[in-house]
Amino acid sequence: MSEQAPRPTPEARPVPEYGYPDWRRLEVAHGRFGQIIADGIATARAEQSEIELGTARCIAHVLGRALGRESALADFGRTGEGQYLTLRDDYLRLYSDERADALTKELIDWLGTYLVQRENTGSGRRFMNEHLPPKLDQLLVRTSITVSGGRFIVNVPASWDSGHVDQLIETLTELRLPDDRALQAFLSLPNVNAATENIIESFREAFAGTFENEEEALRALSPLEDWENSLADWCIDHGIDFETLEWNYAPLMERLRTIYDLVEEEGRIHAFVA
Fold this sequence. Notes:
The longest helix is centred in the N-terminal third of the chain and has 25 residues, at about 25-45. The two termini are about 25 Å apart. The protein has two domains: about 1-180, no CATH class; about 205-274, no CATH class. Helices cover about 50% and strands about 10% of the residues. The chain has about 270 residues and is α+β, with helices and mostly antiparallel strands. The chain is elongated, with a radius of gyration of 24 Å.
């Protein structure tokens, strides 16, 4: 996965309109470019990396034959120019078509993963077996959505198109997302899939509280008071004034972060069971 700085988070856009996919043209194009694509995928698997731009363009060209020259896929195949969101609904339309065979879906898995990782907006392969081809439904994409006039960041599967995102927006509107800072923090966590069937239940199970500062979080989520009492007893036994000692909270917070996901926002700390 690339270590480059994240690019601007993609925002949902309307689904483009094309005619019915021409699967015969796709089949013919794959016959011409299939070996080039197979070689590119073999290299990526051997190196445990994403496919290169040339392979991605070949895949886009083959897929674009099904949708016509005016499609975003066809344009990317010709020029190599295009972003994840401008291409996503094109290839997902083919991906969800009942006529798409396993090979076509695998090509789309590789292309979609390449586009997401190139823009550095994905969760990486943390949910995948590194020895197997990528799967779009196991890749989360950091996505900007608008709910009741406010902009929020959520993570959705790479297999989701604009229609799914629209449904999520409706759900989060019903949950009054703009009024719930803790829910906003939860949905921003990179390992939280907003497509989870009952997201509000997942939130409630994980939410450990909102705190004004680190000390308050430590007192609520760790045995800090027990440690203080033990230290006070030790000070008494050794004739040391307990009040002269000062806790270093930094290492304690680092330990706390191994147990909880902590989101700091506007001076407050939202905690969730990791």
